[in-house]
Amino acid sequence: MPYPELSIFRAVAxxxxxxxxxxxxxxxxxxxxxxEPLKTxxxxxxxxxxxxxxxxxxxxxxxLVAALGDKITTQYVENIAEGPDGxxxxxxxxxxxxxxxxAPSFGLMEQVMKVARxxxxxxxxxxSGYKTAANVGVYNxxxxxxxxxxxxxxxxxxxxxxxxxxxSFPIPEVLQGLNAFTLGMxxxxxxxxxxxIWANTWYDPGKERDAAGTLIKLGxxxxxxxxxxxxxxxxxxxxxxxxxxxxxxxxxFGPKTNLTSIMQTWGPFYIKTVEDVLAKRWxxxxxxxxxxxxxxxxxxxxxxxxxAVREKLQxxxxxxxxxxxxxxxxxxxxxxxxxxxxxxxxMSDEELNGMKFLVDGIEGRSPKH
Length: 369
Fold this sequence. Notes:
Helix content: 40-55%
Strand order of the largest sheet: 12-10-9-8-6-7-15
Order of helices and strands: HEHEHEHEEHEHEHEHEEHEEHEEHE
Number of strands: 15
Structural class: alpha/beta
Mean pLDDT: 91
Distance between the termini: 100 Å
Largest sheet: 7 strands, mixed
Shape: globular
Radius of gyration: 26 Å
């Protein structure tokens, strides 16, 4: 070989080119990986429907997609029962590559915790419950603030002084709402009573309609509920009985008789959560917000509500937002006359999350009694 130095030059050049190519490929691959959208998945324990607990979460998912575009991909599965079916879907989400999973309910708390322990690289957010872990957060709202306002409105609008209330299950969140509603109504009419029927379901239009009919026969001229259907609203509309809605704005189902509703607004929270995950600043927490934070809002009032009542309701809402009024400020006594909150005291979040009693003024018992 007459020019060995030329071969050495070619070999060096080839090595330099190869190194540059490998570096370029590594950079491109890393950039592609960094730009990979966050796969965000949603488990719904009820049908989406036209209103309710899951409907509001589906609205929030759509808001999330509109806000973050190609930074994320989403998928959902609806009408999955809490328990083994819920766990199965959570595991399938993990297998499908979901990196952020939203579950909606207290009844899925244990399944979320179980799957999360076995999937440490996946973040789980459960809507209700109290258990957290390094990769599990909880989010919920102070729905009882809106319930208190609905109770105030019921106190002003009821002629009989009797309201009807359809409960789902006697978990703390439901008891908070029921008690707050009663306290709000009795802040206007100390002799008011709330007749309670447990549906023992989150969603069963037939049971909900039957419960509404029974409460109307018992003299209730205002109905509230903690189930996810609209049959209570439509049944009351047919009878000319006022309703106070929950989860969604349900005016279209009771245009003459639905006075207002508590609306759950999860879109901004979903967006912030995903942005935190993308920016790698997400931390496990038990997030709780209410009227002040915008996690709940009151739907527009029906024209049937007089101006003077509107003004009093607005004053109460402003007082809650400003921290001057707390629905569970003492003195509060339960059905047996036992003092649960002393005068000058306010129930803490921890105490509210463990609520097991019903306040004075409720006619009906928890199934646990």
